[in-house]
Fold this sequence. Notes:
Blueprint: E1 4-16, E2 19-25, H1 29-32, E3 38-41, E4 54-57, E5 60-62, E6 70-75, H2 80-87, E7 93-100, E8 113-118, H3 124-134, E9 139-145, H4 154-160, E10 163-168, E11 175-176, H5 179-190, E12 194-198, H6 201-213, E13 218-221, E14 237-241, E15 247-251, E16 258-260
Parallel strand pairs: 8-9, 8-12, 9-10, 10-11, 12-13
Antiparallel strand pairs: 1-2, 1-7, 2-6, 3-4, 3-7, 5-6, 13-16, 14-15
Helix pairs in contact: 5-6
The protein binds flavin-adenine dinucleotide and FE2/S2 (inorganic) cluster.
Amino acid sequence: xxxxxxxxxxxxxxxxxxxxxxxxxxxxxxxxxxxxxxxxxxxxxxxxxxxxxxxxxxxxxxxxxxxxxxxxxxxxxxxxxxxxxxxxxxxxxxxxxxxxxxxxxxxxxxxxxxxxxxxxxxxxxxxxxxxxxxxxxxxxxxxxxxxxxxxxxxxxxxxxxxxxxxxxxxxxxxxxxxxxxxxxxxxxxxxxxxxxxxxxxxxxxxxxxxxxxxxxxxxxxxxxxxxxxxxxxxxxxxxxxxxxxxxxxxxxxxxxxxxxxxxxxxxxxxxxxxxxxxxxxxxxxxxxxxxxxxxxxxxxxxxx
Length: 304
Ligand SMILES: Cc1cc2nc3c(=O)[nH]c(=O)nc-3n(C[C@H](O)[C@H](O)[C@H](O)COP(=O)(O)OP(=O)(O)OC[C@H]3O[C@@H](n4cnc5c(N)ncnc54)[C@H](O)[C@@H]3O)c2cc1C
Ligand code: FES
């Protein structure tokens, strides 16, 4: 699968509840993108001290139309980079690299699929839903957020899916609670044979556990901190169990962000478990530790 680096032009930016929906003309990326992949975006402008790109799941990638190749993503303000991005005005050129990472795997036969999104994590599920429907899979959604303005995409889901169940932590929309609370009922009601989830890591872990208790395979798109997004820096590694049963520290930007939920060692996220391949082994003589990319060794006070 190819990856391109382009200067994208922001052509539209609009509020979507608590989030900002950005549309870029980004020739090449839309043509290559598949649901579940993401882009790395430069932030802060050409003279910025914000050196590292920020990563965003693709909400939509439309290869044709009035403009040649548009990509859409949804920004929730978190820190300085996303604050800057949410305020960018149309016409601004930005450096975009993508599509990055592995896409969701699609079922081989038309089965019912339950798509579970938390906050802006719902965004990549809409392109996935289209791909699933093209395979004649029934699609049902569970969308959640802290409050009504943090549930992304409910109107679109209602137009296109078999059913949509909304949850909010504060009860301001849908059922009070989390997506995990309603998942057992939704799995039973829809009879779904596949679950796809994207959202905060604790949500993904819990969704994976519920799906496993129903013996339904579950793919999760993880959101692990990423410095480079292109497989170089190793900041994004997660302990993932391979087909051979061996745990490897696996780059979620390259081999992920989509993983089967049961392959993620959730208890060990954020550390290297002692039984992971290579953990604790002394470096072979003559081996040097890989050098960190220059931007990761910036002096204190320089933003990432
Ligand atoms: C695969 C993937 C898809 C994502 N999709 C979206 C999306 O669709 N919409 C959205 O709003 N956000 C998304 N995020 C999270 C987004 O990348 C972070 O919110 C953003 O990098 C924070 O940058 P900042 O400058 O605002 O915050 P700061 O805290 O100043 O960020 C500094 C650095 O910390 C890291 N970082 C901080 N928070 C996060 C986080 N939550 N996840 C990953 N890295 C983080 C980044 O490497 C960043 O370079 C995604 C992250 C990943 C890994
Ligand atoms: S973010 Fe740098 S290797 Fe994954």
